[in-house]
């Protein structure tokens, strides 16, 4: 696991995009795993600005999706991925995968998502953010490292943190489908991004605390190839 502290969101975006673009240009990016939220936005922007060839052949898999949002809701991760990743990069819409948070049978939708990941050959580069709770995807504290794609309950802290994407905190769904820790672990490379003081304690726990489900992101220390990109505020509690 490699940690780099960079000046700001722009620098982090450029560095994260270097990793993804390097894999794409080397012909090794068949499947890109994407986080939504604020942290990776500049990675996608930097990639879009490079005008790289070959995006139409790349499969994109989201980490997670809220349960129960109507189709076309701007806060749904299906919409977010379409707006912030698919359209700017020029990915084929048929190659974009987001868990189905509107399925009648959510457990079947989770199983289908696991199968789709395997059928695609697994994720080559997974872009990750980290929650203030230490979550990756929506794997909140207590999530077993052996977990797979499943329905989870969001913590009150995560609901509060994500309220900024909704009209009010009451509108934030309390449940989501998320890739499990073991699902995320199968990606060949991981790039985790954290910015701001609000992430400093989660970053400290993930990188220097116990490797245990209390801090789901600590599982990254058991993965093969992980690059952690931090701004100075997110890195401020590291020794
Ligand atoms: C989103 C996801 C979450 C976020 C995390 C950080 O798909 O999987 O783990 O990455 O909540 O969110 P931001 O970057 O908005 O602070």
Automatic annotation (TrEMBL):
Q: PANTHER family annotated for this entry?
A: GLUCOSAMINE-6-PHOSPHATE ISOMERASE
Question: SUPFAM superfamilies from the xrefs?
Answer: NagB/RpiA/CoA transferase-like (SSF100950)
Provide the protein name: Glucosamine-6-phosphate deaminase
**Which InterPro entries does the UniProt record give?**
Glc/Gal-6P_isomerase, Glucosamine6P_isomerase, NagB/RpiA_transferase-like
| Gene3D superfamilies in alphabetical order | 3.40.50.1360
**Keyword field contains DNA-binding:** no
Entry keyword set: Carbohydrate metabolism, Hydrolase
Q: Which residues form the Glucosamine/galactosamine-6-phosphate isomerase domain?
A: 32-222
Specify one Pfam family.
Glucosamine_iso
Entries under CDD domains matching the protein: GlcN6P_deaminase
The answer to whether the entry has keyword Cell division is no
């Amino acid at each position: 696991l490699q940690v780099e502290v960079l000046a700001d969101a722009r620098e982090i975006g450029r560095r994260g995009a270097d990793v993804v673009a390097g894999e794409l240009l080397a012909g090794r990016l068949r499947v890109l795993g994407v986080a939504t939220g604020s942290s990776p936005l500049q990675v996608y922007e930097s990639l879009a600005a490079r005008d790289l060839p070959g995006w139409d052949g790349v499969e994109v898999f989201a980490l997670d999706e809220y349960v129960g949002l109507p189709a076309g809701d701007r806060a749904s991760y299906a919409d977010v991925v379409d707006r912030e990743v698919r359209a700017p990069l020029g990915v084929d819409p048929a190659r974009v995968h987001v868990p189905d948070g509107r399925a009648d049978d959510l457990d079947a939708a989770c199983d289908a998502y696991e199968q789709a990941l395997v059928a695609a050959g697994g994720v080559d580069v997974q872009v990750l953010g980290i929650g203030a709770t230490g979550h990756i995807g929506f794997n909140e504290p207590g999530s077993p490292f052996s977990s797979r794609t499943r329905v989870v309950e969001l913590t009150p802290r995560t609901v509060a943190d994500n309220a900024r994407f909704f009209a009010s905190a009451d509108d934030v769904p309390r449940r989501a489908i998320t890739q499990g820790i073991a699902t995320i672990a199968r990606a060949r490379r991981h790039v985790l991004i954290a910015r701001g003081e609000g992430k400093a304690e989660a970053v400290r726990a993930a990188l220097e605390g116990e490797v245990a489900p209390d801090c789901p992101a600590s599982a990254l220390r058991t993965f093969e190839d992980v690059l952690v990109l931090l701004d100075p505020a997110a890195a401020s509690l590291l020794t």
